[in-house]
Specification:
Blueprint (H helix, E strand, L loop, with lengths): L1 E3 L11 E8 L6 E4 L7 E8 L1 E6 L2 E6 L2 E5 L5 E5 L6 E8 L3 H5 L8 E4 L6 H9 L9 H19 L6 H19 L7 H7 L4 H12 L3 H19 L4 H8 L4 H12 L3 H8 L2
Antiparallel strand pairs: 1-2, 2-9, 3-8, 4-7, 4-9, 5-6, 5-8, 7-10
Helix pairs in contact: 2-3, 4-6, 5-6, 7-8, 7-10, 8-9
């Protein structure tokens, strides 16, 4: 089952499928493309069976719960295991914001990953595969939104490494992020945050940035600013009191960070948004 689409009527979608489909029970499924031969992203998700990627001189086996992504122009070589061909969903896509959304994955070479903790993708893929030619009343927007959700889930949940140890590390960092959010009003240190994930400061910082998309300190500051915005519009507390309640050591630093992130001072935000 393969679908090929015309370019969307509007070119401002973050991402949009060029083609997509589903291969299963096909022992002859094989692709080999030279560098520069295809100018869009190529994503495959393995739901069952087995197949192989050729990466240089290496042969990498992929089974259920794994997948791979090639960026535009990247050399491609993959095929199904003839005795147990993979059940695989695939989509070729482009878009104005794809590179930023995927954080550069697949651009320099194939990205292989595990998606075992992204089960919500199954329902999204089923809906995507159910589409043919999109209607002119919202069909293109829905296709773009479905693809965006799939890619966002991958970025948030996919692991470069395999196995329970990698999944455990990811979960501990996510749990630490939730802990930071719920304790953001306290004077937290980077060491305390890392302790919540039971790992070193350097490892925690790297993993946190990879999974959350920002440093732990940036995330903590963001959580505090969100709480400050709520207080500014729902109370008449002075700015220095708001700064203290949300965890900033000084009101001057709070005002500086608030203006940097929001483009206005806390008092200006209160006048604009506080009714």
């Amino acid at each position: 089952m393969n679908h090929f689409l015309a370019p969307p009527r509007f070119d401002r979608y973050t991402c949009y499928p060029e083609s997509f489909g589903h291969y299963y029970d096909d022992p002859s499924h094989s692709e080999r493309r030279a560098a520069g031969q295809i100018d869009c992203y190529n994503l495959h998700i393995v739901y069952g069976g087995k197949g192989y990627l050729r990466i240089g001189d290496r042969l990498v086996a992929l089974e259920a719960g794994t997948g791979f992504l090639y960026g535009p122009g990247v050399e491609q070589s993959y095929y199904a295991e003839p005795s147990d061909p993979w059940d695989i969903r695939w989509v070729h896509f482009q878009g104005t914001g794809v590179g930023k959304l995927l954080q550069g994955k697949g651009e320099e070479g194939v990205w292989t990953f595990s998606w075992r903790n992204a089960d919500a993708m199954l329902e999204l893929w089923q809906e995507l595969l159910g589409h043919g030619v999109p209607s002119l009343t919202g069909g293109e927007a829905r296709l773009s939104a479905l693809l965006y959700e799939i890619l966002a889930l991958l970025v948030q949940n996919a692991e470069d490494e395999q196995g329970q140890q990698a999944a455990g590390r990811r979960n501990s960092v996510i749990e630490a992020a939730e802990w930071i959010r719920s304790h953001s009003g306290q004077p937290l240190t980077l060491e305390q945050m890392a302790n919540e994930a039971d790992c070193s400061v350097s490892h925690f910082s790297r993993q946190f940035h990879r999974l959350i998309g920002k440093t732990p300190i940036e995330f903590l500051t963001e959580c505090r600013i969100v709480q400050a915005k709520i207080m500014l519009v729902s109370t008449k507390l002075p700015v220095n009191v708001v700064a203290d309640k949300v965890g900033f050591a000084s009101s001057a630093y709070f005002i500086r960070r608030f203006r940097l992130l929001e483009g206005v001072t806390p008092e200006q935000f209160r006048r604009i948004r506080g009714g």
